[in-house]
Structure formats: structure tokens, C-alpha cells
Design brief:
The chain has a six-stranded parallel beta sheet, with helices on both faces. The chain has a single domain, classed as HAD superfamily/HAD-like (Rossmann fold), CATH 3.40.50. About 45% of the residues lie in helices and about 15% in strands. It has eight helices and six strands; from the N terminus they run αβαβαβαβαβαβαα. With about 190 residues, it is an alpha/beta fold. It binds magnesium ion (MG). The site of magnesium ion (MG) has 7 residues, from loops. Magnesium ion binds next to loops.
Length: about 190
């Protein structure tokens, strides 16, 4: 259903990594990416965690040291997003309503309206992060969901669509599909 409303290309990420820690940040910088937008839930923390781990702190330090601007962009509520963003000293957009554009536009405004092609979005959901980011013409990296347990009903439904998208991708563009090297459990 939803596939009919959007261009199919918008469902396909540019890159797949197992976790956020597997992203080659220097490589992104060399490819002219200057802004990184990160999803929060199940990309950085599972729903039942709230504290940034030392690994997360290290990641944010590296991102900042290289010179990227960084934003947390989450569909979750203000309290959770703000409390996390404070810990890592990053700007944030809460209730972003991904895959719709408004939340992304808010983050772009904070960044002084950069060229969208200099933005990399990292997230775990095809129906919100990948679809939303690709519609914005961002470079999109999809990572594995940290923990499926505790996912909200909307996420469960969108997982259903995600499986359909992936099956179609396998059928229509097997090279790309295998290149993503998705985990079996996805
Ligand atoms: Mg997520």
C-alpha cells in the first residue's frame, strides 16, 4: 500500500552496516558528508535503555572531532530525546514524524540549510528512516535494530512492509540486495 505512494527508490538505503560503530566516518567525510543525523531508538539505544554508554560517548566525540555537525532526529517524545541529546551534547528534533519531511527540515534549519547531499542519515527502520531520508535526498545508512522487544505497534506494522520491500528488492535488484549483506535475522 504505502509503496504505491512513494518512489520505490526511496525505500532503498545507500549503505548497510551492522551497527553505528561500523560506519566509516572518515570515508563519509571524504565523500563530502558534513552533517550526520542519527535516529535514537534501536539505532543508538534500545527502548529500555536511556543512558549513553561510553561507546556512544566515544562515537559522538569522534564524529565531532572529524568536524561533522550532528543531530538526533527521533519520532519519540521530547523527554526521552532531550535527555539523551543532553548526555551527548547534541542538538535534537523530537516527534520528528519520519518519514514526513517536517522534522528533517527543522534539523536542516538548525544547520543553516545545507545541500541535502552533504547530509547522512543513520537509522534502523526502512519505513521511517530510509524512506524519509531518501525522500530528502540524504545519504542513508541503515543499521540493524538493536532489540526488537518493546517495539511499538506502528513499528511492527512497518516491519511487515519492510519485509515486502526487501523481498521485492531481492527480486528486482539482487546485486544491490546482496551487496547490503543484511543480517539473516532482519
Ligand atoms: Mg529507530
Amino acid at each position: 500500500m504505502l509503496e504505491l505512494l512513494f518512489n520505490k527508490r526511496h525505500f532503498y538505503p545507500n549503505e548497510y552496516k551492522k551497527t553505528v560503530y561500523d560506519i566509516d566516518l572518515q570515508d563519509l567525510w571524504n565523500s563530502n558528508i558534513r552533517i550526520i543525523m542519527l535516529d535514537l531508538d534501536n539505532t543508538l539505544l534500545s527502548y529500555d535503555e536511556y543512558k549513553a554508554t561510553s561507546k556512544i560517548h566515544q562515537l559522538f566525540e569522534t564524529i565531532k572531532r572529524i568536524g561533522f555537525k550532528i543531530y538526533i532526529i527521533s519520532n519519540n517524545k521530547k523527554e526521552r530525546v532531550r535527555s539523551f541529546a543532553k548526555q551527548v551534547a547534541a542538538r535534537y528534533v523530537y516527534s520528528a514524524n519520519k518519514p514526513f519531511k517536517l522534522g528533517f527540515k527543522r534539523a536542516l534549519k538548525y544547520a543553516n540549510y545545507p545541500n541535502p547531499e552533504t547530509v547522512c542519515l543513520v537509522g534502523d527502520q526502512f519505513m521511517t528512516d530510509v524512506l524519509g531520508g531518501r525522500r530528502m535526498n540524504f545519504y542513508v545508512i541503515v543499521v540493524n535494530t538493536i532489540k526488537r522487544k518493546g517495539e511499538k505497534w506502528f513499528t511492527k506494522i512497518s516491519k511487515y512492509y519492510e519485509r515486502r520491500i526487501l523481498r521485492r528488492l531481492l527480486r528486482t535488484d539482487p546485486d544491490f540486495y546482496y551487496n547490503m549483506k543484511l543480517d539473516e535475522k532482519r
